[in-house]
Amino acid sequence: MGIISLFFISITYSQDYNFKISEIPEELITDANSVILFEDIAVDIKSQKLMSFTVKSAIIVYNKLGDGNKYVVVNYDNNTKIKNVQTIIYDAFGNERKKVKRKEYKDVSQVDGGTLYADNRMLYYEHVPISYPYIIFSKYEIETVNTGFVPGWQPIRSYLTVSYTH
Hints:
Distance between the termini: 32 Å
Radius of gyration: 18 Å
Shape: globular
Order of helices and strands: HHEEEEEEEEE
Structural class: mainly beta
Oligomer: single chain
Number of strands: 9
Largest sheet: 6 strands, mixed
Strand content: 35-45%
Helix content: under 10%
């Protein structure tokens, strides 16, 4: 019984992503500038004072008008730690084109210069496309002592961005 359970767990946790654009139904991509393939948010409340969440997303950008989705942004502050961040760029055929290195992310303040003191920061990567379409896959894990607020989810990000789950 233990071997069967272990086998089942390894199957459910192994992810094999298919980033072939040709497999998306044509009616979904007509006039779309970008398509959200998936966005998964897993929340793990470890104790009363510790929570972590992992975000995985993949977005196809078809043209320059969809470039608003070329950013990977991870917000943090003194109570939040970024445990892991990963971004991979794929071409239209699902071939990996670029694995983003940690030093390619920019670490900046979330607040403009008019604020006297703020510790809200963001780590972000801006992809500069060479050709279209392209796919941005990102995964990051955050750990926080703020267990009062679970991260939000927004089903529609912008005009002519389609959500697709396969």
